[in-house]
Amino acid sequence: MSDLKFTNSTQPVPLAANLKAGFVIAANPSTDVWAKPPSTHRFNGPILHKTAPLSSFQRSSVHVHGEWATLYDQGGLILVMNSADGTQKWVKAGIEFVDDKPYVSVVAKDQWADWSLFPLTPGEGAGASARIEMAREKDTSLWIYLVEGGERRRLRQITWAFADEERVAECWAGVYAAKPAKEGGELVVTFKELDIELSA
């Protein structure tokens, strides 16, 4: 995966060995990946990704950890579909800090974003971690999983993810971090065991 690159960041790309062992992404305040009517479009969170045809995407997974402290602190997997006309659809899944505690969060953006939260294992505090997986199904769906104790727990099905592959110029498959709040310092999110599976 030496062809990884950053978007919205000047951070150096991690060494290949560190993709498994561990690496960090730092997000400055006022960064986000979000879209909400009537006119909110934010796409300035740092993203480390591979670029490929959407038809080649099979699955991605990562272990994510952070010292989540500020409302909407977040980090995890992301899959961005860049259309030839300049529009974007995306799916992000990871941990997000809401109501003073971390949750597993999934957001899917077609025209606008919609958001769902799932509780973490009881006892997980502000330094919570989780293993997240995105996987293509045999139809046009993308499934999001929380992996605990070797078991995949289904969280959400994105039915439209691969429905218009011919209209997608390229996809970005990787990980991201964001800190929508204006206050506080940067958010540093730790990732390890990153795996991005693309077909030939």
Strand order, main sheet: write it out.
1-5-14-7-8-9-10
Total strands: the figure is: 15
Question: What's the CATH class, please?
Answer: Mainly Beta
Overall pLDDT level: 94
* Main pleated-sheet profile: 7 strands, antiparallel
Estimate the helix proportion, in percent.
under 10%
Q: Unreliable segments (pLDDT under 50, ≥5 consecutive)? A: none
Number of helices: 1
Examine the secondary-structure arrangement and name the CATH architecture.
Sandwich
Question: Termini, distance in Å?
Answer: 14 Å
Q: Which fold name corresponds to the CATH topology?
A: Jelly Rolls
What is the 3D form? globular
Q: Structural class, please?
A: mainly beta
Summed up, the domain count is: 1
**Can you write the helix and strand succession as a string?**
EHEEEEEEEEEEEEEE
The Rg value, from CA coordinates, equals 16 Å
Report the portion of residues in β strands. Answer: over 45%
Short description, anyone?
2% of the residues lie in helices and 57% in strands.
